[in-house]
Amino acid sequence: MRAAQQWQNTITGVGQRFTSVHEFREALRKYAIAHQFAFRYKKNDSHRVTVKCKAEGCPWRIHASRLSTTQLICIKKMTVTHTCEGSTVTTGHQATRSWVASIIKEKLKVCPNYKPKDIVNDIKEEYGIQLNYFQAWRGKEIAKEQLQGSFKESYNQLPYFCEKIMETNPGSFATFSTKDDSSFHRLFVSFQASLYGFQHGCRPLLFLDSIPLKSKYQGTLLAATGADGDDGVFPVAFAITDLETDENWHWFLQQLKSALSSSTSITFVADRQKGLKESIADIFESPYHGYCLRYLAEQLVRELKGQFSHEVKRLLVSDFYAAAYANKPDVFHRCIESIRSISTEAYNWVLQSDPQHWSNAFFQGARYNHMSSNFGEIFYSWAADAHELPITHMVDVIRGKITELIYTRQANSAEWMARITPSMEEKLEKENLKASSFQVLLSAGSTFEVRGESIEVVEMDHWGCSCKGWQITGLPCCHAIAVIGCTGRSPYDYCSRFFMTEIYRLTYSQSVNPVPSLEKETLPVTVTVTPPPTRRPPGRPATKRTGTHGQAHEVVKRQLQCSICKGPGHNKSTCKEILL
Q1: Can you list the positions of beta strands (E) in 11-130?
Q2: CA distance 249 to 230
Q3: Which residues contact 330 (CB under 8 A, 6 or more apart)?
Q4: Taking a C-beta distance cutoff of 8 angstroms, is the pair 267, 366 a contact?
Q5: What tens digit of pLDDT does each residue of 134-174 get?
Q6: Half-sphere exposure of residue 408, counting CA atoms within 13 Å on the CB side?
Q7: Nearest Cα to 461, choosing from 447, 478, 475?
Q8: DSSP label at 178?
Q9: Which of 12, 73, 459, 489 has its CA 20 to 30 A from that of 288?
Q10: Residues forming beta bridges with residue 74, ordered by sequence position
Q11: CB within 8 A of 134, min separation 6: which ones?
């Protein structure tokens, strides 16, 4: 109640004047809250307001109307006496959504995660009013819109917003499309700094993935991310679409191809869904499509028809991952034979899942041992953190995160002294330790035999080894390092150029410029864009994204196991063995 005490004299009596009806109503609401009573309107229009106490038989009453020839509202009559027990009324009857918004707006600005239940508690303590959860939630939604801007208006700003992105960041791509009814369909954005960094410093490797957005109008974020020379996530392009469909993926990849304007063959790591598979092959020149291992493993477990325990499913997935990481065909076949010993059905599924698109033993592209499309997890977390913002604000938050990422990595790499990036230096050192025990049979040519636990053939001129480790990772394998040491050369000379510190710095040599705020300008109406028809369903949305990493053990969900018969799929309370 301490906060409401300041409002006890917002209404002083007959003769008090207000600049508008709205100002009088707000003063009246605060007065009622401070004095803890509820009222109802008898008359309420643009030039007069008559109000009486809601309690039956209570004489309290007030009447205000416009002063002639002015816009001022003046209190003409007021009965100040209450005979009711108004002070016991603590419901939120007078606490409108707008009033709640005005009270919490400043705190919401400082604490964006201000929860409705905390709003209920704070208003009860400070104003003596008992709100329900939905009053608090609706008040918060209004306050958010006042602070962040209107969702509806944000969609209408898209034409001008795209122009400003390309104007402030020359070389960037920003485009959108609408449906026949002018409702939003999709938005594509790729900043010049991202395009330059990918084309000049990153491996020709892109990860395609998506996350659902939990904004007012839902939608999906589609993204293409790369891997920098230190195996860090490098954002390349993203799109916001009304739905995740084959058509929207096709459109996204078309825009991406236009933005990259390069004939270099690219390896994609993405889901094997039919639409995406066909779009990659149709749009890009000689692409390689590596299926996302995490999605494949989830599909394998989902499509198994037999009753398998959690432990058996875990073993199947583990063998499946081993088959994917196997560098040689014979190792691959040993792994899938292990799968066949558990389930013939699973074995057949693996053989029919196009191993040439996901197994190192057969894949022709260059994935550098990156097997899952959710490599860009940090990028998706940025979008998830900004999902409740209007669309232009969300894009600008992502822009700010990319700006910060580029600056931080620029500053960090300026202090590096080695020829290759730190993570690659660490991997090279591990291979170097293995090489010390190998025997190298020297040759006058460029082909060498290396003997250790196995016998491998190293082709120095072709930067290849029969173990395939060098070809897959882009770093000399332990066998190659053994040869390099015997011939007096430096292993750094045989590392992929993408891992060089100077190339890493080139990746982050450009910057993303700010985009002017749209609220301060009168925007020309060129194209009308309305919100999409989709709306967020009722109920509280999930706050965490599942399946964040492509690890084998995360694919398998826990299955019930009976403690009596040890059978899967039920517990002891529903066990049929008890009845026998």
Answers
A1: 17-18, 39-44, 48-53, 61-66, 73-79
A2: 28
A3: none
A4: yes
A5: 888 888 878 877 776 778 888 999 999 999 999 999 999 99
A6: 8
A7: 447
A8: E
A9: 459
A10: 17, 65
A11: none
